[in-house]
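thread: overnight batch results

M.L. [08:02]
morning all. the overnight job finished for the chain we discussed friday. pasting input first so we're all looking at the same thing
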Amino acid sequence: MLSDRMQSAINAQINAEVYSEYLYYSMSAYFDSAGLPGMAKWMDCQAQEEHFHAMKLFDYVNERGGRVTLTTIEGPETEWDSPLAVFEGAYAHEQKVTGLINGLMDIALEEKDHGTAQMLQWFVEEQVEEEASATGVVQQLKWIGDSGQGILMLDKELGTRVFTPPAKGE
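M.L. [08:03]
and the structure it wrote out:
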């Protein structure tokens, strides 16, 4: 059974993950309207990944005999100045999520909730990948600068991304 504090913290993280999904769909809509379908697809995949994260936590609370409580999701940003600004925002957001996951891990360790700490280790590792992925695109966009041709080439490359949910137990 989860402690009330741990359950409340995980519920807040479920909310944060759903917000992340919403944010990435907003970024995808921005790219669609800007004529960058590859970047839109990259963000769609990111949104699907965030949904998977929310459901992984949702299922965990239920498996531990807890109660999932959903709260209002704040509206995400909808306008950016450039593709670089969008990906810088995505990177900053992933850094924020990393802090939230680390906070959850701190609670689990403080409460000696080894089951939750074990489950959260997957998220800790996932956040390393999330940050690296976003900052990688930021770096590419910085190298490209204002080159329309470079942006179109990167858009095509990013459009090859496909979300594949991890196998059960991963």
